[in-house]
What does this fold into?
Amino acid sequence: MTAHDRAGNTASASVAGTPVILQESSATKSGTWTTKSSSSYLGGKSYTSSSKNASLSWTFTGRSVAWTVSRATTSGQAHIYVDGTKTATVDLKSSTTKYRDAIWTKTWSGSAKHTVKIVVVGTSGRPAVTTDGIVYLK
It folds into this structure.
C-alpha cells in the first residue's frame, strides 16, 4: 500500500499474515451452550447461549484477532476479556440478521500468546449470544 498526502509526501507499507480460524468447538466452555447447524455459519456450525455468565475462551499465538458472530434483533450482549482483563462489552443486536460478522477486533504490535474469553451478559428480553469462533493473524 502506498499513501500520499497533500504535500506530495508518500509512504509505503505492507502487511502480511496468515489468518487462522478457531471454531467455537475448539473453545473451552463454561455454562450451557447449544450447537446450531446451518450453511450460513462459519464452518457450518455455531454455539448459542442465553445463560448468564456462560463463557467460551480461546488461547492462540498471534498479533490480531476478531470475534465472529451471528446477529439478529433478539441477540444480546457479551463481555470480552483479553488475557484476563475485561476490555469490552459488545451488543450483538442488529435490525437485520447477519452471519459471520466480525463484531470485535484487537491488534497488538507483535505476535504473542493471548487468551480471548467471551461471557454472556444475559441481556433482559434478548439474552442470546451466537458465536462462530475467532479468526486471528499469526
Summary: The chain has a mean pLDDT of 93. The first strand starts at residue 2 and ends at 4. The chain has one domain: 22-137. Residues 77 and 91 are 4 Å apart (CA to CA).
